[in-house]
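Please go through this chain and its backbone structure tokens and walk me through the local backbone shapes. Keep your notes short.
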Amino acid sequence: TTPTKPMAARAFIVTVDLGPFMVDEGVVVGAAPTAAQQAVAAAIDEACRDHGFVQVTNFGVTAELRRRTFAAAEKLFAQPEAHKNECYRALRPETNTGYSGFGKEQLNRGRPADLKEAYNIRRPELAKNDFSGVPVGFEEEALELWRAMEVASRRYALACALALGLERDFFLRSLERFDLCTLRMLHYPPCKMPTPTRGVPAKTAIRVGEHTDFGAYTFLLLGDGAEGLQLKPVVGGEVGGASGGESDGWLDVAPEPLPEGQVGAFVNTGALLARWTNDTWRATAHRVIVPSAAVAAAHRYSIACFIDPDADFVVRVDPRFVRPGEALHYPPTTGLEYLMGRLKEAQENVGSPLLKEAQGV
């Protein structure tokens, strides 16, 4: 028989209807929040003080748009390796757009490279995207999803400010240009299973190594049947590599069933939101493992929208989140300074024989 990894406990993820923030009323138009907006904000606050994951619905992405976008992503990654490596614009930290080939990134420096490939898109007004070589129709589908996610992320910023009792535009001020936000298509090809022991040994290649996201928050759309996402509640989100913590305490993340035709997305807090709030809200450590032989044999797809503060925006701990006698957990940084440091760290992959071994089925 084929060994499988023991089942992890499952995280409780609250489902939040973002609909009250998608209509022009209450805090959206600068008025007092509606009762529905208050309820949504309270649910987000409770989750972000715990593990930092929520599932949102009614955030502006229709079932048809989701279907078309994932179909376009599958076609993008199905092209021959030579075409992807030679014709797609290669991803570089300086632009953060284009194609990142399989095994080019290493989010946990204590592991071999991640078992994935990716394609990044940024706000079209920035003129940073180069869609050279992509299949017909991909650019149009990707940019339609971008437009929907830009609206959703601004409305979520309003919800976060209300949840924390801050000024309405506290987070919106950091998103005036959207010049660092990124839409990322992700593909995880079939791979070998990790070593079937309790936890996942630190030197094992997995689909995405342990990490916290770099920015404020991330919207994550999962493709059909996408399994293996796990989270770990930790103060400050420090986990993986030199920080350790790879093996124990991980919880499976699975979307709650939704009515036919309704689209859900996970939203998780990132490292800069933890910095703003001095860890009042958690930066969610997460990873993607391979929990079974069936999952290892299947292609896995997801789409992430990373919401980062504008390049020159200074993120510093707000004094309202510092209790008397408590120290500041973080020094000030800018959106660009922090993002560039993290991107270079992830993309300076030195390679490993374990990566080639993991590619086989």
